[in-house]
Amino acid sequence: MRSQLISRRDLEFLLYEWLRVEELTALPRFAEHSRETFDGFLDLCEELATRHFAPHNKRNDSMEPTFDGTRVSVIPEVKAAIEAFAKANLIGAAMDERHGGMQLPAVVDAAGLCWFQAANAGTMAYLFLTIGNADLLIAHGTPDQVERFVLPMVEGRCTGTMCLSEPQAGSSLADIVTRAEPREDGTYRLFGSKTWISGGDHEMTENIAHLVLAKIPGGPAGVKGISLFLVPKYLVEADGSVGERNDVTLAGLNHKMGYRGTTNAVLNFGEGTHSPGGESGAIGYLIGEPHRGLSYMFHMMNEARLGVGLGATALGYTGYLKSLAYARERRQGRAITAKDPATPQIPIIEHADVRRMLLAQKSYVEGALALLLYCHRLTDLKRTATDPDAAREHAMLLDILTGVAKSWPSQWCVEANSLAIQVHGGYGYTREYDVEQHYRDNRLNPIHEGTHGIQGMDLLGRKVIQHNGAGLGLLAAAVGGTVAAAGAAGGATAELAAALEAAWQRLVAVTASMFAAGDPAAAMANSTVYLEAFGHIVIAWMWLEQAVAAHGREGDFYDGKRAAATYFFRYELPKTGPQLDLLDALDRTTLDMRDSWF
User: Fold this and answer.
1) How far is it, in rounded angstroms, from Cα 181 to Cα 189?
2) Catalytic residues, which ones?
3) For residues 56 and 62, what is the distance between their CA atoms, to the nearest angstrom?
């Protein structure tokens, strides 16, 4: 029976036939790997996700964590799943061997993680954050910080979080007030409150390592005065043993519509409930240099943005596969041409409108998965490049795509989940079927790691113009290469190439005209529309890439790829036309609207 989590056949096509990840094994970093080790890793991920994560997904949703004022309780299956994941060394799958990792390519690691995010987003959140936390410490922490905290995380004895938002400062990090007071021994004492902390408290591991943004008194104002600190729930002794409780207190749990199996905490630092060494204040360790904390945190945030996009894709993907299976089994109605009411009812997949909804889902989730794997391959190329110029180019291309890779799946794979519910009809709205939970879980992802509004302003206001537009130029070259290859293929593939070329050139022209007008307020007022149009054109590029990879190949799988590509180009890409018209006109409708008019 085929999995209803992720399509293994699609992963193999994307990894081996399109991205040719076996070629990465020629690089020294991945020389110990092969197609066999990659396949073994994917086999392991599918097996563990199916056995240890998927079975408790609905229970995790219905029996969310509770807090009795002293301890947090989580269903035991979550701890068992975390332990199974860690025992298989999956936390360190893409990390260096010297840190206990497998040193797998990031693109292969991402493909494996898809299974877990599709199986159980609530449980996977603890591990997803731990991996990002450990990666940040490896990149920016001291050798002592890495030794004391990364190895326990890789082994599953410690989980990690990121603590950014405060009750009065959500996305506006310039306004955080948590302070870090230096002490003579080189440590800091932290005082303040953080909210929306996923995985912020639990009893499933011996420790939790919090990465906390705070300001050192006397530092610069705004984001330039933010520093980053490692603040453990329990202090760690020099020999690695867990010591006394730090002054980090759980004030309460937030209760979200999705990811209900993940604790979401309000944490108070320096409340005095616990006073290590007899002094109030949570002991924290400075990471890197003072006042550069936000730049360090972006290491985890950008990794998390790709992770959010991957998670959104996985949730959309499993919803698609489940609605596809349902549509093949559910019998209702008859063909339009059937006049005899006594004829048997047909599977609903035979109805054109149901096929439309399934094609839409397929085009969204398979297009999004292609983009996420492409971005992770850029991560590998950036990391292994021996030529500094090549490394810089890979980094710039990844930078301009990261916001799209986060935001596009978290908008359109939620739409895929909505369509999966619609395919199920009335049953789709009931708790007996998985698709309603997938929708609730996925609806959180447009908020996670920066809203569409934030990503749109970042893309239009920074990414497309930084380095004198070099990132946009690199993307143009990549798109142009695909268009040329598709054009050479001829036939229907060449027709798609012409459509993408026209859309891309219009996007570039509109981008230039928006800045040439000299009215940045009007340009930025519709940056979210720009993000949507930009994202749709990028996904069209991903579909053209897949069409080229499938060109000349026969069979149902390849015919399905071509049909989904055609659907996206005929139904979705044309939507960018009116959006680009709006942007080109520098429409001021939202800018000119007044509070009193609502």
Assistant:
1) 5
2) 449
3) 10
